[in-house]
Model the fold of this input.
Amino acid sequence: MHLRLKENMQAKIAPLARAYGMKKAGPKTFVKEQNGIVSYLNFVGYFRGGGYEAIDYCICPLYDIRSHILNLPGDVMHGERRKEMLSGWGVIQFDLNGTDTEGINRKFDQILTFLAEEVFPRWEQIDCLEAFFAPERQALFQAMLVGPPDPIRECLLWDDRADAARPHPWGADEYLFGVWELLSGQEENGYERLTRCLEQGEPYIRQYQENGDFTIENSLKDPMKLLYCNAQLFYKTSGQVGKDARRRAVLETYEYVCRYMRGFHKLERLPKK
Done:
């Protein structure tokens, strides 16, 4: 089975990823950085030693922890191409002997089609932080929380409004938008968001601090810990006196955080401690 997966990865996924500008960051991982935006594609290995358990595809700011917030709108996530790709996924997860060669090849064709026709065209529109956070893009995501009517069942094809209304369990949404608002010069909103993120993570932060390893260098393999560490670094810039001093501190912190986040996203090797 592993040979069949490797052949398909090399023949189909790798050329497509390269055409999009991604580089290989492992046998089944592809990444790209452009103007502070990271595109990440990874085939998750099945924990029992079989094939691929899932595929992780995410676009996010470099400072983010791949939270999948504002990743792809509802028409893509609920579209026919994705449904087709996920249907019968077990052929590349459980067929340990690799006997269903035709099924494996067909599944990779479906993955290729989904990425080429649905994912990468959307990502190609996002070439900077301003494009990622554009009000028009956020409005599209809001509009796509609800699908069109289902003519057969007389209901909506999808309705994600309840899920969207729930705050992220780690406060990752507050961090994501809080840092962007700081970078955009919206100090008050940015620090308020970071405060809410840190309040949400307070029990975990206290535990990390007690262990004495609450630094970005020691957090790169723990996304939740990394989130709170980064949020705290950005929040500390609020202690600078004067707007110009805070602005310089935010930009310096951004550069510092991004240096380590390139290691987290596998764009570069992890910085030495």
Remarks:
- DSSP finds twelve helices and six strands in the chain.
- The first strand starts at residue 23 and ends at 24.
- Residues 26 and 107 are 21 Å apart (CA to CA).
